[in-house]
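Input for the complex:
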Amino acid sequence: QKEVEQDPGPLSVPEGAIVSLNCTYSNSAFQYFMWYRQYSRKGPELLMYTYSSGNKEDGRFTAQVDKSSKYISLFIRDSQPSDSATYLCAMSGGSSASKIIFGSGTRLSIRP
Amino acid sequence: ETGVTQSPTHLIKTRGQQVTLRCSSQSGHNTVSWYQQALGQGPQFIFQYYREEENGRGNFPPRFSGLQFPNYSSELNVNALELDDSALYLCASSLGAGRSGTEAFFGQGTRLTVV
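Predicted:
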């Protein structure tokens, strides 16, 4: 079993829709939870991070962490074609403090 | 754009050869981590360097080695290249080991093709 599980998609939604991306994980020692966006042939770009449980909002993006369920989510409101990319969930902490463990990424396409 | 730069952007090598990839970390950052990203997968941690010392290693064989220099730039060396080494190699810089999750900035990557 992988430490971090993420549905690879692809996910296609119309412009303006609310997008929900999710990951589950197995290591209860994880403390930092991140979402990265990666455009084709580019490096990952840090979108949001959350320490421990809770919600965090930044513009159209909201990250949620539920440590009791080992489940994290990223919501994108009013989605735009420019949001089309691969979204990677990622985690670190505990014995994995020096490294980031990534999910496999979800390919998202926003249709104009 | 982040301040992390990697070179070269692309290269093609033959199986059995050796390759060196380079990374300049963001100004003020003293920690560099290397990741391998196969097509359609998330990045996999190779190792991390903090103040010129290796500080954590993933599940990669010894033919993957690295260096960090006094200016905190870094090299990734891969010996005896195999076809499965074909991937995007990513460098991430951060301030302080153990804080790599919150403040890790990635470069654009080096796409290595082994033929």
